């Protein structure tokens, strides 16, 4: 009887241990799923903010483009142009940093849920789209800065032809403070390194 009782007790303990292990596994899975969902929400919040700010920066770029292209001998929008250049440059640098962060979030999420999971693939698509939009905006900014430099040289030369004075190239004062330095510093995204 004691032997039978011991065997029964052993089986009971084994069953209890099995149930405890299963319960712990379920808790671990639930915790992982909860963290994964939280990380995914954070990623989409970050991506949504980046998308909004790319749109805002593109609007500012449109304003800058219009001002640069309508600049003439008798119309001076230098101060407004300078403010837009500084603001857009700051936005682009900020967006570049945030895109790197979003890319790291996406890669971490894919490691958690699996590289080929639907959520992981969707996150990759979002990052790729944002990188392409950002790349177009940054490239557009660099282009308009070059146009601005060319326009100011043209205006300066026309002033010299009319008034007989004035430099033939841009100087480092007034509206010419922001030209080549901005072009050199604009971060153009290397889309060849975008995630798969």
Provide a descriptive summary of the structure in words.
This protein has 196 residues and is an all-alpha fold. Helix content is 80%, strand content 0%. The chain is rod-shaped, with a radius of gyration of 30 Å. The relative contact order is 0.11.
Characterize this entry briefly.
Helix content is about 80%, strand content about 0%. It has about 200 residues and is mainly α.
Element layout with pairings:
Blueprint: H1 2-70, H2 78-113, H3 118-163, H4 180-185
How far the N terminus sits from the C terminus, by CA atoms, comes to 67 Å
Rg, alpha carbons: 30 Å
Number of contiguous helices: 4
**Average pLDDT metric:** 76
Unreliable residue runs: 167-180, 188-196
The biggest beta sheet, please? Answer: none
Structural class: mainly alpha
In terms of quaternary structure, the protein is single chain
Helix content: over 70%
Count of strand segments: 0
The sequence of SSEs as H and E is: HHHH
Strand proportion: under 5%
Coarse morphology: rod-shaped
Key terms for this structure?
196 residues, mainly alpha, 80% helix, 0% strand, rod-shaped, disordered C terminus
